[in-house]
Structures are given as structure tokens and as C-alpha cells.
Design brief:
The structure is a homohexamer of 282-residue chains. By secondary structure, chain A is α/β, with parallel strands linked by helices. Chain A is built from 10 helices and 13 strands. Chain A has 2 domains: 7-113 and 270-281, Quinolinate phosphoribosyl transferase, N-terminal domain (Aldehyde Oxidoreductase, domain 3, Alpha-Beta Complex), CATH 3.90.1170.20; 119-268, Aldolase class I (TIM Barrel, Alpha-Beta Barrel), CATH 3.20.20. In chain A, the strands form 3 sheets. In chain A, strands 7-6-12-11-10-9-8 form a 7-stranded parallel β-sheet. The first copy, chain A, has a 4-stranded antiparallel β-sheet with strand order 3-5-1-13, with helices on one face. A two-stranded antiparallel sheet of chain A has the order 2-4.
Amino acid sequence: MHFTLNHTEIEALLREDVPFFDLTSSLLDLSAVNAEILFAPKEPVIVCGSEEAEKIFTLLGVNTELIVKSGRKAFADKTVLRANGSAELLHMGWKVSQNILEHYSGIATRTRAMAENAARGGSNIEICGTRKHLPGIKHLSLKALCSGGGSPHRLGLSDSVLIFSNHYDLIGGLETLCRRLPSIKAACPEKKVAVEVESVSDAIKAAEAGADIVQLDKLPNESVRKVSEALKHSRHKTIIAAAGGITDTNAETYAAAGADVLVSSWMYFGKPADFRVTIRKT
Amino acid sequence: MHFTLNHTEIEALLREDVPFFDLTSSLLDLSAVNAEILFAPKEPVIVCGSEEAEKIFTLLGVNTELIVKSGRKAFADKTVLRANGSAELLHMGWKVSQNILEHYSGIATRTRAMAENAARGGSNIEICGTRKHLPGIKHLSLKALCSGGGSPHRLGLSDSVLIFSNHYDLIGGLETLCRRLPSIKAACPEKKVAVEVESVSDAIKAAEAGADIVQLDKLPNESVRKVSEALKHSRHKTIIAAAGGITDTNAETYAAAGADVLVSSWMYFGKPADFRVTIRKT
Amino acid sequence: MHFTLNHTEIEALLREDVPFFDLTSSLLDLSAVNAEILFAPKEPVIVCGSEEAEKIFTLLGVNTELIVKSGRKAFADKTVLRANGSAELLHMGWKVSQNILEHYSGIATRTRAMAENAARGGSNIEICGTRKHLPGIKHLSLKALCSGGGSPHRLGLSDSVLIFSNHYDLIGGLETLCRRLPSIKAACPEKKVAVEVESVSDAIKAAEAGADIVQLDKLPNESVRKVSEALKHSRHKTIIAAAGGITDTNAETYAAAGADVLVSSWMYFGKPADFRVTIRKT
Amino acid sequence: MHFTLNHTEIEALLREDVPFFDLTSSLLDLSAVNAEILFAPKEPVIVCGSEEAEKIFTLLGVNTELIVKSGRKAFADKTVLRANGSAELLHMGWKVSQNILEHYSGIATRTRAMAENAARGGSNIEICGTRKHLPGIKHLSLKALCSGGGSPHRLGLSDSVLIFSNHYDLIGGLETLCRRLPSIKAACPEKKVAVEVESVSDAIKAAEAGADIVQLDKLPNESVRKVSEALKHSRHKTIIAAAGGITDTNAETYAAAGADVLVSSWMYFGKPADFRVTIRKT
Amino acid sequence: MHFTLNHTEIEALLREDVPFFDLTSSLLDLSAVNAEILFAPKEPVIVCGSEEAEKIFTLLGVNTELIVKSGRKAFADKTVLRANGSAELLHMGWKVSQNILEHYSGIATRTRAMAENAARGGSNIEICGTRKHLPGIKHLSLKALCSGGGSPHRLGLSDSVLIFSNHYDLIGGLETLCRRLPSIKAACPEKKVAVEVESVSDAIKAAEAGADIVQLDKLPNESVRKVSEALKHSRHKTIIAAAGGITDTNAETYAAAGADVLVSSWMYFGKPADFRVTIRKT
Amino acid sequence: MHFTLNHTEIEALLREDVPFFDLTSSLLDLSAVNAEILFAPKEPVIVCGSEEAEKIFTLLGVNTELIVKSGRKAFADKTVLRANGSAELLHMGWKVSQNILEHYSGIATRTRAMAENAARGGSNIEICGTRKHLPGIKHLSLKALCSGGGSPHRLGLSDSVLIFSNHYDLIGGLETLCRRLPSIKAACPEKKVAVEVESVSDAIKAAEAGADIVQLDKLPNESVRKVSEALKHSRHKTIIAAAGGITDTNAETYAAAGADVLVSSWMYFGKPADFRVTIRKT
């Protein structure tokens, strides 16, 4: 899957950290020293961001070798990226590359863990990351999801239909929504319409009214199971999404309970993966 | 402290989440419904990002009232921001505003906790956030630090001198660096020169060689105390910075051990603060 | 539906036409003349772009009154937008505003014509504009579609699944695709999967294999009718989209033949609507 | 003539259509398939945009061969551009490249037709495109004009002097303008001053008052002939531009009537050229 | 003449100087102090940049009063702009506003001096600034010229025809150019064609070949007079531009010698105007 | 020291001067002529901007050879940069490259002169350029300083602490500031605190209060000497910066008087260096 920041965006990231020059390296005359830099995770990770790190060093003008692509697993101490050139240039690219690798490999690794746990509970389950990533870095946040084997739940507000209670409470509640669902569906025949509900009975109501997807918000896995069983023999093939509090530890249970999709923000917020960065003379 | 994203930047954040329109609100005809939106933390927080949320709703064209500014404490359930207008416009600004408030209030709240704990260990201690925030969102990351009573350790590579072992190992090690320190200092007379070290003896060497700041990397607090005592009667008034593994729980101990500055990335990575968002008809 | 260019984008459009100043108005000293400018269509139109024109004049600093919003019908000679201020400023905003109003009202008007014709053939039919608009102006092109009562078929490549023969020919043809469809659908449970086909029999194959949408490319309306009848009693509720050569004149026939969605580029390319622009002293 | 979008602009066009990834190609695992893509017109065209299409594929990282440059004629089925690489990357660049080639080759082809027809009416006649292209895409619109052998009439408001009745009506009408023309001309000695008029007599008045160019708006070709004959023996070598309703079919007549410049928007609005796009395994 | 930076551009200038916050004002708690800032020239100047300074303070959120517009004369100690609000905000806008006012008022003032001197030598003489301003700041450089009563010689390479010896030497020299001039002129009938020459005889050759403008490069004023006299009775009304080494002190002489246009870079490079900035409590 | 504009920024500079095409070169068919362009200073200079000029020609697609890097001395007539390719492309890059080389080499050359003069007065003296460069071109202005052996005094308002009288007058004057200095210093332990003063006695007061740097504004060199002597035996190692009216001619005297840092805007405003540009057929 081709999914990378473009040159303009990479230049902006580099400029953010190095607006003019690297004062320390300059005072130490490091432009006169040839060196290499190596990035390797301290623990096994699913890599994300190595293409971006490669572009950073390439834009700086040093020779760069991308060894492990985004989406691949790297074992502990396995070098993921290597660059060599003037030590000043290496220092300029060091931290921004490391930050990208650590943050996004962290997200990718957690997504993969969640996906693997979920797969033990049920095959064909999709792990979706919410829109709850930090504003301004959607591109790499979604890349990290995909690198870990997940998907973006929604790219934003323009591409999909997800009706929250914050929506239907404004038009008279779930009952009213259910009455209007057929015309809403007819107005967007190429989209699936998702309705978020907070109880088993509401899920069944929404499904019977024709919701393509019922998103169960913060329900225990037993409730998911009840919804799943209730809808199993329905003529509608309603997709069941479970959202709210889903993590790597309960993903298997929710999957086993019959969810088709697990929607989570959990993967965005753990600690970054830890990468060892070695800079040495060549 | 005036520290906010400008209109161009706010527009880019909004466009990231709403590239064209809000499909769901449009299908539900929410432009015809007047409503108000309220943001209130579920737990007490130090607010960060309310000015940005205000700009988002103002750019959308709705009436907005900023109630709690960045840097101020908000108690649980205290409304921090309120806006009212068409429910479609409120939905367009909802998530990006909530994400900003939750992420950056989270950082601000953790920074404040760390600062308060550190203050119990020693007055006048400075809490600094590293450059380890996510690339692309430096502005709000630094604003969150300041909102919590911390400071940016360095804005980037161009504004300060911090010599890591990754630097001095390339020029012959700490000894060589110490010999070169006087001329380095003379080359940047308006800057303080910081040297990162990994042992008590190296710290003392660097201080005696004239480092304005010795940054102790991943040393236990007892080592900080030793360095502090060793340097107390020196003619140099060396600033002692402790870095690596500093969190809210050990900040007091490190402060009590004599550190002047605590350098940490800890505050960047916890869970976002939790805000309750209410949207209701008016 | 809130759907407008933001200030940064409006400023760029104005700068494109007026990089520095209006040389002609300046040579004639028109800054000393107060005037008003009025925009009115010469024929009835569905308006699109009046919000953008309003922003242009507002950014130039003149008083502006938006009279007819995008999506509304304006009769011949009905003033849609009015601004008054220095004649120099009015001249600076004139052409770029007129161009926006004329081009996008043209698209909106044609889309509306197509939608009304289609509605005579069948209720609940959706008119979709393709991705064949000009690169660089997607935002207003999609706004014009929506203003005319249509929808964007796809926002781009990231938000939807549409499998062309250019795709499945690379993996072994339609048969192979049909075999793989269940696993493809499982991999994107929240999306509808559309398959483009070029014959009635292929349409039926794709539908039976589980395609949520079959897009019939350049088939005559009788073929659409055959597909529609064949699928009427299927357990799959396959959506039928007709694409290729659909215009306002045949929209009714295609709708009557049973298409649920008409996919067209036709509305993008006719002549702009014609607006009379009056500038007169006040 | 070197006239192309730069990398930043090309990246923005690609990002507009592919904000993150190509979902369809990704679901079909097309990154594992090697293929080539070929673009060839179905009818003879004057090519415009092949350099931009080349840059799109090059930025995507595939091997690209530009065969027919902008401004050259391509016969039906002649391959204009070819690229080969992963089928996923080819699909990412397909539509945006095709849209550019089709739209701008369409404009170039119509401009060339108009220029050739005009040349039958009079040698040395210049075909100018107005500012009536779509806002936001001036660069390629002007490139298409030049590729077809035309010229931009004006780049925008800052580079030239063209006095419409919308200007001189504000200062007292054509008589007043004629009195002021000498001082206007003296104020911009390096520019030609053009005056738009709507009758033969006004054209002669403006020419006698010293207008370097008289632009005849929506006058029949007989009127152009009258102006041309009236001015033939004048000491002023007034340039005669004909504007309003000029198309490929009447260009010859207007040229034969004595116009030096034909100013038109006609070439901007026809149907795009039709290109066959072939994607096949390699 | 309306000629200003837009909001996006102003925000970029402010961000360049204040990337995050004003550290000094923040340490001094100046946000708690209300103050006013006044800008007044120490010597009489032609003002340029007061609209931009006004926008800077307005964007910062303080009350601002623009007293003297660009293009107007301000006497010594006359307040040109005043703003009041929090002292922190005033400090944030201070230097960037002062720099704009000082640099561009400097250029405007020198341009005006040159224009007034030239006017003593001949009426209707145009003062043109070259393209030799600093890259990246063309907008305000040209505004300063216009504020001083001058004009931009050329906006850039796309809007005008100026043939240097660096051009015609590549095609066989001035003789060849003269032979080709008629067809060059026919190819751009709406532009004046300028030819730069370095001797009286070349000037006459170019004029006789039909150059609309002869630009005399680094010729003494006696040579300008000779060219002027030689061309006085020509049927061509050739415009004479003098370029190279023209300053305020020799502008009168060159004007008296018969030049119609003086082309200079001199105004760009003197010292900035000196403005007194007062910040005081309110 | 690696310090250059990135591709996006270079493209913007080129676009500023060549928004669409080079009209003159196009009319002369220079795309058919192969040529080379050479840039050589007419007088010895310290080069600045050759990397940017190299990028300009490289982006235009011509072969480019960078011969003298920024920061190096070039003797008169020494070629600094050479490019060869189509004469049209060379003309497109000519002026913007020349302007960059001339302006910034001028600043670099003056900075070097000042640094060399200062070095005769005292070793280890730092030459700093102020924030008084033109807004919008900070990057290359600072690069020019560094190329000449100077430094930026401050990057902007966010990176350093410099307390002007415009600051302390708002809080009660220098006395109040001195009382508050210890707590101000404690609040930014990693920064040096500079205080600008206008008399010898104030300098001594500020130094005794703990200012790390006293910046003497517009004081004669005898006053600098007095401050220097007064502070020589102080326990504080106060840095003495002299600012206001410092030029190449008095730099030596100020250095000899005991200043550690000379702060100046003088280098920004002289005439550009003069480069001979040769374009010749190849």
C-alpha cells in the first residue's frame, strides 16, 4: 500500500525542528566528520515511518538505505534504516526521524497486537482507528493504522455516514431516525449508513429499520453477543461494530462475541516504540 | 502568554477533518436545527486549546464563548467553551475541537502535576518538555507545556546548544570536548552551553571545564545529589538538568536532590483528558 | 449544507487574478469613485458560488450583500449578490467573482436539470458527478454538484471501492474477481463494493458474487432494464449505477429503466451560465 | 516554451485525488502486479499537459517516458505518455493525469483550430484567450492556450491596461476618457492602452484619441471591416482586437475583416479531448 | 491604489519573527500591562507599509488606528500608526511592523525624491524600479515604488518584452534582431517591445527597426540627448528609457536630456527610514 | 554549516519572478539555442547564495556546477556558479539567481569585513546581526550573516531573553527590573538574560543585579571601556554587548574597548555585491 508524505510535507517537518541550522553541530564542526546513523528498535515492532525517515535523510543530501518498510515486523536490534554522510547532516535528521519512527511504529505495533488478538476471537474482523488522533497529523496516523493491519474508521466527516445520538437526539430521537432511515439510505445509495446505539434493544431497532451498520457504544461483550444473535437470522446482513473501551486485551472477547468491526482509539495513545539510534564515525 | 495557532493553521486543521462537508449532518438536514455545544472536562484539568477551539467555531460562523483560557484550571463538569448556531456547523467543529482540548489539556495537566510535585522538592525548579513530541504539531505541544507551567527545553536545533555524547563521541570523547569548551563558549557568548553526561564524574568534569549546564541522562537521584553537592561550592554556577525517565512520581525526589531543571517527555504520552461534549437544541 | 472555500483559499484565487494591483483602475483613479456592483443571471439558474463571491468582496473590504445562496434558484435578472464601495475594489473582485458564479452555477444548473429529468423516470434516483472535473478545483466542482441536487460519486481514491476492468483485468478477469469478492468485502465491511461491468451478463455475475453496486458502463438503457429485472428478486439488494454517456436528455430513460444511481461527467463541461454584471456610480 | 507546474503544485494535484491511499488497488493487492499505462488520444489532438502527467508518475516513483510534448500534434492512437511500475502506483496517477491531458489538450486543440482558421483570413493574427478560465487553474489554462498557438490576452489585472465601458462609464463616458487618454498614456509609457468599444464610431473616436488598441466587443465582422478601413490611413497604427462571440467558425471572417487580434473564451469550454488509457500487465 | 499583503501573508511574516511566543514579555508578565505603541518617522518620509502594520496588530487582537496611509507624506514626529492593548501583544508586533515601515518607507521616500527631481527635468517622466529587489519580497517592494510615485518596470518575465544584449547576442546580434523585429512585434501585438542598447547608434538602429522602446544602458545623459534628438522627427514615436546608474541626483539631467522613462534599482538599497517607536502605559 | 532554502521555497522564489513563462525568450525562440551562464563577482566577495542559485538552475532542469560555496571567498572574476542548457531556461533563472548572489554576498562580505576589523581589536569577539532585516527573508539574511562569520543575534522573539527599556519602563524602570532579575533568571535557567541599557551606571547596575549580558545601546566606545573595566573583577562574568551604530569602521575600537559581542544592522543595508553574468552560446 503506497501511503507516504510527499516532499513538501517532509520539508515542513524538517523545517519545524531545524528552522535554520543545527547550532550545536556547527559549533563542533561536525560537517567535517563522516559518520553513519542507524535506527533499530529495542523491542520487536511493526515498523511505520521508515519511508518518511528515508526521505528526510535523502532531502538532506546523504546516502540512505531503507531496510525495513512500513508494515513489516522488525526484531529487536534489527537496523531499519541507515544513512551515512556528514555528521552535521545526520544530526539534523536524527530526532525528527526518530520521533516519526517511534510514534508511528508504536501505533502500528499496538494495532497489530489488537488485530492478532481479535483474530483469535473471530476471523475476518476489522480493526478500525477512530478520528481521535491528533489534529494536524492525520496522514501518518492513518498510515500507522494501515501498517499495523487496521483501517481508518472514517477519513473525516465527508466520506461516510455515522449517525451518533448527538445527531438523532436533535431530530426527535432514535424512533424518528428509524422512520427516516429508508429515505436517508435512498439519498446515499452508494454508502453504508451506520447508527451508533447504546443498548441492545436500540441496536435491534436500528438494524430492523435498515441501518447497514450498528455501532455499539461502550456496551459489554455480552451485549454484543445478544445483538449478534438477534441479528443472525435477520434478512438484513447488518454489520456489527463495537466501539468504546476496546483495547488489545478485550479485542478477542469482543470478536468472539460476534462483532465484525472493532472501533478504537486505544492504539493512538500508548508510549512510543523505543528505537536505539547509533551515530558513529565511518 | 499569547500563544495560538493563526487562522491559516486553524483552517488547515478543520479542512483535515472536514475536507468538503459533513455528510451525516447534511443527510439529516441539521442545518435547519439550532443547537448549542458545550465542552466540559469529566475530571479537573489544566485547560489547553480553548483558544483554538474558539477559533474553529468562529471560523465556521457560529457564536462562541470562551470561558476558560489555556493555562487555567477547570473543575469537573465546568464548561470551558460554548458555541451556538446551526447544528450542522456545530457538528463540523465538534471532533477537531474536542481532540485539541483533550490532547493538549492532557499534556498541560500532566505538566502541571509534574511541576507541583517538583515544587515540593525544591523551589524554582523548571519543568522542560523535550523535542520528543510528534513532528508536525510542535506549536500546540509547546503551548500545552507552557499552559501546564512548564517550558520547551529547546525549540529546535537552531536556538540552543546541547552537546550529546552522540556529538562528542565523534570528536574524540568528553575529554576532547572539555578541552574545546572554552572556545566553543567564546563562539556563542550569548548562549548557555549544555553538555549531556551519563555519570557523576563526567558531570563534574564538564562543569569544571565550563559547561553552563550539565544534563544528567538517566542517572538515579542519588547521583544528581552527588553532582549537586560537588558543584555547590564551585566558582561556576553550573545549572543541573536531570533527564531521562523523569515523571510526575519522581519529580519531587529529583528536585530535592538538587536539580535545577527537569527534562522530560513523559507528559506528552499519557491518555488525553476526557471532555464531555453536549449538543442540545436551543 | 455548509460547503465553502476558506479564507486562505479565497485569497489565493484573488491573488491569481490580481497579483499586485488593478493597473487600469489605478490609472483611471477609480479609488475615488463610489459605486455598486450587481450580479444577476441572464437566464434562470441554480446558483453556486455566491458565498465565495461574497467572501471575495468582503476580503477586499467592501460592503457585500449575499442575496441568493448556493443551491437556490435565481430567475433571470434577479440580483444574486451586490457589493458597494470604491470602484477600484469592485473592479478587483469583478471577474474572479463572475467566473466563479458563471462556471459553478452552470454546473449546478445542469445537475439540477439532470436530476429533474431523472426524477420523472424514477423516484429516489441519485445523480452523481464523476472524478472527471479539472484537477485543482475539486472543492467547488463538488459544491456545484451538491448545489444542483447531485452528489460526488467518489471524493477521490481513498474513500470508496470501485473496481474497474482496469483493475480486475490485472488479476485474471471478472471470474477471478468474483471468487475474491467475499474476502474483499470482508476486508472493508463498512464500505459498499462497486464493480464496473460492460455487459448484462457480467452485471449479473458481479451481483451474484456479492457486489453491493454494479456500475454499468456505456450500456444502453435496455440493458439497464434487463439487469434491473434480473436482480429484482435476488436476495442481494444490489444497487444499479449507470455510467457513461448519461446526460440530461437520457437521464429519464435510464432512471425509468431501473438505475438507482446515474454517474455522469456531462454536467461539468457545458457553457458557463451567463451573468450580467452591472457596475454603477452610487 | 518552458511552462510547467512545479513539484509543489503537482504534489497538491495528486493529493487532491489521492489524499491517503488508493483503497481499491490496495484491497486487490495491486502493489504486487507490474504493469504499464499508456495514454493515447482517440482523435488527433494538440497535446497539452504531458509534462505534468510525466511529473505525476515520476513523483509516484515509476519509470515514465514522455513521448509527445505539449504543443505538438498527436495522431489518433499515438501514445503520448507511457509509464511502468507497480499497478497500484499506476492507478494512483491514472485519473489525475488523464484529466489533465484531456482537459488541456482539448483547449489546445480548439485554440489551434481557431488559429488555423484565422490564418486563412489573415496572416499574423493573434489568438488570445481571455481571463474567463476557471479561477484556481490559470497556470495550465494559459499553458493550453500557448500549446495551441494562442496567447493569454492578459495575465491578470496587474500587467496590462484594458479600459472597459464599466470603467469609463464611471468617469463620464467615452468622451471624458478620450480627453484623458493622453495623460493616461503618459502615465504608463511602456504599456499599450486598450479601450473596449461597442460601435464603429466609438472605435474611431478611441483610436483618434490615441488608444493603442481598440477592442471591438460583440460587433459583427462588417463593423470590424469598417473600423479597419477607417483606421488604415490613420497616422496611429491602432491595433484592432475583436472580442465577444469569436469561435473557430467565424475566426477566418473576423481575420479577413481586418482584426489583428481575436479575443475569445470559446476554447475554454468545449468537451475535453478523449484519451484511451490502457493498463496492462508487463 | 489598493495594494496590500493578504492575511495569509501577514500571518507568515508575524510567524517568522514570533514562531511561538514572546519569551521576554512573558517572563516580565507584560500581558497584565495595558499600553499603547506609536510609530512616527524621525525625518519626513513618504509612508509605505502602514496598512500591513495595521493588519499585524489587528491580527494580534489589539485596537489599531491607521493614521497615515501608504503613499502619503508624514512629517517628522507625526504618528503614522497607533495601537493599544496588552503590552505583550504590542511587543509581539513591534519589530516586524517597524521593519516593514522603515524599509518600505525608505524605498518610497527615495522613489519620491527621484520622481520630484526628474519632474524638474521634464514633465510626464516615469520612474521605474527594476526587478533587482530581493527575491521573496516583490509584493512590498513594488508597493513601495508605487507609494513613492514610481512604477514597477516589469512585474517579472511573463508580462513584458525586454530584449537585452544577452538575448540578441545569442541569435546573431543586433542586426539580426532588427531584421526579426517586425515578426516579433506581430507575434505580440498588444505589447510594446523594448530593446536595450549600449550606444547611440544602436539606439537609432533599434528605433528604426521598430522597437517601441529603446532602453539605453549606462549611457551618459549627452547620449540620451542625442538619441532623443535623432528620434524626435521619426515617424515612430519611440519611447526612450534610460537605465543604469540613475539616481536621485542625476534624474533631473536625464529627464532634461529627453528620456521618457528612468529605470533604476537605486531606490531599493539605501538605509531604511528611521521611525521612533514609543511604547507607554495607558 | 548546512543552511539552505528547501525546494518548496526555491520554487516559490522562481515563481515570483517567472509566474508563467519567459515571454522575451519565447518570442526569440531561445529554447532552440544551447548556451552557458556564468556568475562571477566584479570585486572580491564572500559568497552567499550559491547553493540556492544552484537549486534554481537544477529545478529548471539544466546542468549546474557549484564552484564556490557560501562562506568562501571568491576573487574578482572568479566563476562562482556555471550552468548550461537551453538559453530559455538560463534566462529564466538568471535574475533571481543574480539577485540572491548579489544581495546576500553583499551582506556576507560586509559581515566579514566587520568581523576582521573587530578581530584586530580583540580576539573572540562575536559579530551579531539584529532582527532588523526585511520581514519575509529571514532565512537567507541569517545565512548571509553566518557566511560572513557572524551570527544571528536572536532568531526571533521566542528563543532568547533581551529586555529593552521598552520592556522595563512598563514595569517601573530599571530598578524594579533589577529587583526582579533573580526570579526572572530562575524562570529560564537555561537561557542567558540580556538587559539593554543606555548608560555606564545602568550597565553596572544591571550586571550587579545578575544580568548575564548587558547590551550597551548607542554608547561611545569609551563608555564600553568603562563598563568593561568596572566589571572585570566582578564575580559575575557578565558578557558585554555593544549595539547601535556599530559599523565596519568602528568595530575594531569597540572590540578593543572590551565588548564581547557587537550587535549591528549595518551589514544588511549596503549596496549588493556586483556580479558579472555572462551568457554565451555553447
